[in-house]
Automatic annotation (TrEMBL):
InterPro entries tied to this protein: DUF4126
Residue ranges of domain DUF4126 in the record: 12-152
Protein name per the record: Membrane protein
Name of a matching Pfam family: DUF4126
Domain of life: Bacteria
Amino acid sequence: MPFKLSKPFWQVLSLGTLAGMRTTSAPVITSHILSHHQSKNLEHSPLKFMQSKAVATALKVLALGEIAGDKLPSAPNRIKPAAIGARVLSGTFAGAVIYKAVGGNVVLGALLGGTAAFASTFGTFYLRKHLVKSSHIIDPVLGAIEDALVIGSGVGLSKLA
C-alpha cells in the first residue's frame, strides 16, 4: 500500500514527543509505518532501509530491550546529556524520514522531531518524578504505564498512515 500522510507536521511532533519518552519509539514507529506503506520518495534515498520489514522487526526487538532496561534501578535518568542526545537524535531522525517520505522539507522535519523530543524528555521526566512523589506509586509501575502510553500512541500513529 502506498504511503499517504496528510498532516506530517502533527505526526512528526507526536513521534518526537514519544522519542522523549522512549528513545527507540520514534524510529520503531516510523519504520513500522514505512514497512507497510512504501514511499516512492525514499526509493533512491539512503533512508530507504527504513521501509524494510527486517529493519522494522530489529527495531522492535531493540525497543523491547529499552522497555525492560528502563525498569532496572541502574537505568540512567533521561535527562543525562547522553540520554538527551539520543532522544533528540531519535526524534530528529524520525522527523527527517517522515518529511522525506512525504516529499517535504527534510530539515523542517528533523527540527520538528528533535525539538519535540527535547521538550518531551524534560517534561516527561519531571512529570514522572512528580507522580512518584504525589501518588506514592513506585517508579517502575509508572514506567510501565508510560510504556503502555507510548505503545498505544504508536499503534494510533500507525493507523493514520
